[in-house]
Amino acid sequence: MRYHAIRNDFRKIDKRKEVVKKLKRLKIDIAKEVPRKILNENIIIATWNIRDFDSNKFGNGPRMKESFFYIAEVISAFDVVAIQEVNEDLYAFKKLMYVLGAEWDYIMTDVTEGSSGNGERMAYVFNTNRVRFEKIAGEIVLSDRSLVEGEKQFARTPYMVAFKSGWFNFKLCTVHIYFGAASGAKLKRRIAEIEKIAQALSKKAKKSDENLIVLGDFNIDSPEHKTMQALENNGFKIPDSIKKKPRATNMFQTKHYDQIAYNDRSKSIEFADNENSAGVYNFFNKVFATRQFKDYQQTIIDLYETKVSRTTEKLLEATDPEKIEKLSKSRNEMIEFLQDEVAQKKFYKTKWRTFQMSDHLPMWTELRINFSVKYLDSLIV
User: Which of 142, 229, 303, 350 is the most exposed place for a label (fewest CB within 10 A)?
Assistant: First the structure.
């Protein structure tokens, strides 16, 4: 990582000390949680939905300079990370890549068109010292007879890329499944999307005996939910290290939205089975923690003062009575918020900090990549 960029980004020494202190805590904590990287022996793959990175379309950002260092520190613990919700404008993403350093590279999709796609891209960020892009990449589209009923394609097109690490050749397919609603037709669409991508990838794996891992934001509620069944009933397995100890991946760790699954037709995917070989990392224990509200209270106040100012300008220009009433109500609510520290703290805890880091936590799994002994044995069979 380009830690030296901290000196340029934070000219005031007090702020620089604060950022370095939090970054060190994060770094030490990650080292305790995530497996150690061993050359030619293992790789660590992860999936992370980084919330709205970084359009600021909800008006709760943009991300501060320090956030990029914290996000980069988390990513650098892994070897290849599937990232969802990358914005059309790549300014923030390229800033993240700069902080990660020259040994990191990426490959990503174009923006998924249509309202369901939310103007998002999907990306893989990988450490070139540990993982090699094998020059095969493509978005998964369905044949006419395989489409989700009533839809033309997926809300966000799944993205498959071939990689190699040591002896291990593998393909990753990242997804961001449509959420919709908790019941009714929209839930049926979510389940159907999971079924269709699992069926399509299983067929692909069967055809070519590939090492195929699918990972991303499946919007799965729980291990027992129909959304999980849609994945497991169509040729994919959850690694034992995750299945035996299910990990919730939303901020408050109550939902199992993000998952890693595999099709083992090739019989050559080996997951490590150490205590920390799979997990979900909660960065909010060290950065943007609840106890750190005071560090960011003024930033939140500044944000709302700007919103009040902009709303006041709109109010002065408005002529429609209904619009005037709506703007006046909104402005009064924001003024009340500025006088209410309890409301500010709640906003910080439940919403604001998720636009600095994310409302999802990264999930990882460790794979073994040294098959030399197996290969030598095969020579004498």
Answer: 350
